[in-house]
Amino acid sequence: MSNNTIISAKNLSLTFQTNDGPVHALKDVSLDIEKGDFVSFIGPSGCGKTTFLRVMADLEQPTGGLVTVNGVSPEEARKARAYGYVFQAAGLYPWRTIGGNIRLPLEIMGYDKADQAERVKRVLELVELDGFEKKFPWQLSGGMQQRASIARALAFDADILLMDEPFGALDEIVRDHLNEQLLQLWARTQKTIAFVTHSIPEAVYLSTKIVVMSPRPGRIADVIESSLPKERPLEIRDSPEFIEIAHRVREGLRAGHSDE
């Protein structure tokens, strides 16, 4: 584990007890995420991608092994507000304006009014929603709602962004645009991002590192370090390098399935 390691998992396991017996969601997962990494987790449904993210966020408790976030337990990291979490659905409160939704965690954390206003303004600019502060969620498209959700997660300036399939429900054109925007946002803010996706092109386009997971019990089938440059126009998806990485992800997914 290097000095730059932000999130570290060692032999992590998580077993859910159900009426039908135990479900092994994660088994012996070990992974280090370095400062400034953009790490995507990809794998079939039920492979533990979201569970892994939720363990990092202290939303699930592991039954074996160890996870640290910034060198402390996920619970301590949560209390220190080390990360922002973006869910699959935007999860905006319909009765609050976009600004009001973004302010909510800041209000809970006790930031003063002037600081709240300044932070809301800054994150709306970051996600290119300046001018939409007084709109309500229903007045925004699905893609814009997700951007507002990302802004809310960025508002208290955590170094880590945990994103659980944030663009999964959006159509391809909107998704492409948001992928581009997210890369620009990552470059500007230098955050460390852990990102769950079902999409091979999305994982390859966004990531510095792609973690391929196998079906239950969730294990890491492959970790692929991307050789793509940091500057990535969408057209890079037609390059031989991109296609080669996508092929390796596909092979990893296939191999993971055949291990069952």
Put the structure in a nutshell.
With 260 residues, this protein is of the alpha/beta class. The chain is built from eight helices and nine strands.
Please provide a written account of the structure.
The chain is of the alpha/beta class and 260 residues long. It is built from 8 helices and 9 strands. The strands form 2 sheets. It has a 6-stranded mixed sheet, sandwiched between helices.
Protein topology:
Elements: E1 5-18, E2 21-34, E3 38-42, H1 49-56, E4 64-69, H2 74-79, E5 83-86, H3 98-109, H4 113-126, H5 142-154, E6 160-164, H6 172-189, E7 192-197, H7 200-206, E8 209-214, E9 219-225, H8 240-258
Parallel strand pairs: 3-7, 3-8, 5-6, 6-7
Antiparallel strand pairs: 1-2, 1-4, 8-9
Helix pairs in contact: 3-4, 3-5, 4-5, 7-8
